[in-house]
Amino acid sequence: MEESAKRIIGFDMARALAILGMVIVNYKISMNAEENGPEWLKTMTGLLEGRASAIFVILAGIGISLMTKKARMSGTPSKKYRKMIWRRSLFLFVLGMILFLMHWSADILHYYAFYMFIAYFFIVASSRQLIIAAVGIVLTSQISQLLLNYEYGWDTTFKYYETFWTWKGFISNLFFNGYHPIFPWVAFLLFGMWLGRVNVQNSTLRKKMMSISLIAFLLTEAASYTLIKLSEPAVGLEIAYYLFDTKPMPPTLLYMISSTSTAIIVILLCVMISEKWRETAVIQAFVYTGQLALTLYIAHFLVLAVFFMFGGLAENTLPLAVTTALIFFLFSTVISTWWRKSFKRGPIEAMMRKVS
After folding, report:
1. Are residues 180 and 238 in the same domain?
2. What SS3 state is found at 277?
3. How far apart are CA 212 and CA 88, in angstroms?
4. pLDDT band, residue 311 (cuts 50/70/90)
């Protein structure tokens, strides 16, 4: 996102919260702590699955929309934007593959690279075209989940994609049944590009969008619960969850609606809060943390690598995993604040900008 005196710092704050959510989810899974904790904590951390990442991708779409506003107004995306976006895509793809080679199979960066590559072709698309494309992608994904074998490539634990390094496996993982496949995850980016064109600083519009999103979230979750209960006797619990759950794997239509709704609520709340307390130290710390999101994403993996080296990724408790994530985030805010007072960008962000 281009630097501006009118920068909406609420987006940076939301990005920091997305990083926190992603770290909690990744730590609880990597530390084998998903089921080893009190029910209330399992429920709370379960709500973060796939939703924090969705916020992150929607914010990326908002950033692209704001960054390319001039090109959209002119009606022609210049070569400058193509060069910049595609080079950043390549940078993220290489970075993601390095993490994958280091056994971080839940990496989102190499998917993110393809989202950005695709986004270039929608820079000058109308808002209506963005929404139609996003809906079409989600519906195509839902149909694919009904017709194709979603388990293809996965091991029995559904944590390691065994055929990733084959052409067929890589394509399937990327487009269909990976952790964050293009169908339907690129719809989050396209929706973010649409949201980046909306005047979220208009308090009346903001309240209306938040109300609609809250209603959509509650109705979707209620529909998910009801449909699972009604279909269980006919198809079994496993298939019922496969068809109607709001967890990210598989990313069903209900998941996409629910996670988009919660993302809008979080993002707009952050915009509202940051407008009111813009100058406070706490808000500034969150903003600086959000501005170093890419660096912190790499850092959170490196912490896991250290845990692995010392045998710390054996079975752990959920409270320990969440506490570790919170401590990491606390240190991240302190270090990010210190770093931003001396440097304009984070180290990985600066590398990406230099490359592009």
Report:
1. no
2. coil
3. 34
4. low
